Amino acid sequence: MIRDILDPKSSDAMKFIEKFHKSKADKTLLLLIGDCMIDYRGRARSFLDWGERIIMIKQDGAVLVHQPIMREPVNWQPTGSKTEFKAKDDHLILRSHHKSPPEKMKITFRNLKLITVTSLRDKAKLVISGMETDVVNEIISNPNIIEEGLRISKREKHVKSGMIDLFGYDVNHTPVVIEVKRSLANISAVQQLRMYVNDIKKDVDEANVRGILCAPRVPDMVKKLLSDYGLEWQEVERRVVLPDDFQKSLKEFSE
Q1: 129 falls in which pLDDT band (50, 70, 90)?
Q2: Residue 149 region, left (φ>0) first, then alpha (ψ -120 to 50), else beta?
Q3: What is the per-residue pLDDT across 188-246, written as a single tens digit (0 to 9) for each?
Q4: Rounded-to-integer distance, Cα 128 and Cα 240, Å
Q5: CA 238 from centre of chain
Q6: Percent of the chain as helix, strand, coil, to the nearest 5
Q7: In this structure, are strands 175-180 and 210-215 parallel, antiparallel, or unpaired?
Q8: Does domain 2-118 have CATH number 2.70.180.20?
Q9: Which CATH architecture has domain 132-254?
Q10: Could you read off the pLDDT of 88-124 as tens digits, one per residue?
Q11: DSSP state of 101
Q12: What is the dihedral of CA 168, 173, 177, 181, to 10 degrees?
C-alpha cells in the first residue's frame, strides 16, 4: 500500500497525515519532501535554516533528516520518538520528542513537494561478509591456496609490534608470518609485515623467517617494496559466501 500527495497545502497535508499515518504510526513509514527549517534541542543545540530536505519517520518512531547531499542524516531522532503534527499559518509543523535521553526536534515546512505513506515489511538480518576474518578463515581451512605444504599453527599471534594474522611453517619448517588484507594492499601493510617478521626473528633461533602479504590485489609498487625487503606476496581471490550458499568471487561480487 502506497499513498501519496503532490504539492499539498499545509491543511491538505495535515488531513492526509491524519487519514493515512497518524492512527497507525507504528505500522506506516512517512516520507516528506519540501522546504523546511529545523530546531533541535537535546544532546546539543542546533538550528538548520530553510532548505529543501527529505524527512523520514520510520515505523519505530525514528526520524531522519536528509539534505540533498551526504550519506548521513543532518538531524535525527532515535527509535521510540513520538511525533505530533500541526498546521498553522500555511505551515506544516512536526514536533518530535524522545524521553530518555530528553530530545526535541521541531520541523517547520513552508512548502511541501511530496508526502508518501507506506508500510514496509522486513525481517531479514544483515549478514556481513567480505571482512578480513573471511580471508583468514579461508586460509586456515585451506592453506594450500597460499602454497603447497603450508601449515598454520597460530591465529592472532601477539608480538612486540602488534598482532600477526596468521603464523605457521612451510614445507621446509621455515617460520612464516602472514599478514591479510581484505582489499588493495598498500605500503603501510608492507611496513607492518616487515615489523612482524623482525619480531619473530628475535624470538627464534633461525635467522630465516618468511613474510607473506595476502590480499585480493597487490599493486606493482607494493610488490617492488616487498621484494626490496625480502618479503613475499600472494593474491588471494577470496569467495564471498552468501546465506543461500550462492558463491561468488570478489571480482564477480563487486560487479
Answers
A1: low
A2: left
A3: 999 999 999 999 988 776 668 999 999 888 999 999 999 999 999 998 865 544 455 44
A4: 10
A5: 20
A6: 25, 45, 35
A7: parallel
A8: yes
A9: 3-Layer(aba) Sandwich (3.40)
A10: 999 999 999 999 889 999 999 999 999 999 999 998 8
A11: T
A12: -70
| Helix 187-203 and helix 220-228, axial crossing angle in degrees, nearest 10 | 20
Grid coordinates representing 11?
Answer: 491543511
Residues facing residue 86 across a β-bridge: 93
Residue type, 99: K
Q: Cβ-count burial of 66 within 10 angstroms (0-12 exposed, 13-18 middle, 19+ buried)?
A: middle
- 190 and 231 in contact (C-beta within 8 Å)? yes
28 close to 119: Cβ distance less than 8 angstroms: yes
Task: Give residue-wise pLDDT tens across range 160-191.
Answer: 889 999 999 999 999 999 999 888 889 999 99
Element containing residue 56 per DSSP (H, E): strand 45-57
Name 95's bridge partners. Answer: 84, 106
Domains of the chain, residue spans:
2-118, 132-254
Please identify which residue in the block is written with the cell numbers 603464523. 167
Half-sphere exposure of 21 (CA within 13 A, CB side): 28
On whether the CB atoms of residues 129 and 241 are closer than 8 A, the answer is: yes
Is the Cβ–Cβ distance between 92 and 112 less than 8 Å?
Answer: yes
Rounded to an integer, what distance in angstroms lies between the CA atom of residue 162 and that of residue 199? Answer: 9
d(CA 210, CA 251): 28
